[in-house]
Amino acid sequence: MGIFDTTQAKRRTGPRGSYDQWLLIGLIGLACVGVVMVASSSIAVAASQHIGEFYFLKKHLLFLGIGLVAAGVAMRTELRVLEKFAFPLLALAFILLLAVFVPHFGMRINGAHRWLNLGITSFQPVEAVKLVLVIYMASYLVRHRESIETRFLGLIKPLLVAGVIVLMLLAQPDFGSAMLVIAVTIAMVWLGGARPLFLFLMGLPLMPALVVAATSESYRMKRLTTFLHPWDHPFDDGFQLTQSLMAVGRGEWTGVGLGSSVLKLSYLPEAHTDFIFAVIGEELGLVGILSVMALFALVVGRGLYIGLKGVEVNQRFAGYVAFGISLMIGLQALVSIGVNLGALPTKGLTLPLISYGGSSMALTCAMAGVLLRASWEISRAVDARQGSHRVAVANVATDETEAAGMPEAEAA
Q: Is residue 130 assigned to a domain?
């Protein structure tokens, strides 16, 4: 048995399933990069707070360990169980989003109600909501496939659910996660067979609402304006972006060397969370940037391929789950990288599996585990189909052999 043999225990007589090895390699690669870069980018931050140089690294490893346990459980849990409890999980997600506004239980940090106080640590419900939304949408697409494909009204319920989640996120406020929920929902419904015209008509009333949401708060307007001209405000509203761009620029082709970043030394805000990609660019250069982007492309590409195979072999729930999780990870990574490179306005989204974070790391690992489980169930279905085809071919060959031998037998 090889080191990368990821075949799950099963009866020898049944169809064989295996976890997608390229997907697993990509996920492990991202997690390893995350450990190294959190160690590099957080030392100065921890030292300035006098909490020990490796404080953030230790917590990152702790939550990564919790995430690996969650991923292991998810990899051994049949997806039909998640499909069965899709609606109760959605109800729990709504409760968690409301709980952040409960006094003493919800935490207000920097003017935002995004965290729950669990005593020993804090928890950000939106990270769990991302996974729950994918599970619910996949379940709905399976149960109402014909309605989604043929009727305009078939889109109302899934988009209404996403709309309620978005409103609750905007109330926190968490504009970045709200946009991510909208994008993933529309993409999943489209991949589920909805007509583009129906999606366009359904989205028309949403566009003015998004414009109002983006411009209603002064700090959001400042982010939009400074994103276009960050060097006009290098010491106030454009500070984060200008520091990020300087970090990436200093890295040039191969970087200044691992651990040798200057901008992380109390210049670049949130160097170990939102702007960790800028530290990667400074220390590892363009080579490091392209390597990280290649790992994300591998994970997202394999996830979308797995989803397509799932639809082909009639494992639609597993396929839609693979689509949704791949899109959730890919779009969040795209936004985070875009912010760090100055291609998008500043948003409070971490880089999946790389940035320091508690609930973010643990729940992203759980999503990865569900995605790997989907790859196992889809590969088992593919093997079952191929096995049926081999049996059919063998039966045809046997019948032809018997038919060819009958005249000789009768002559004898």
A: yes
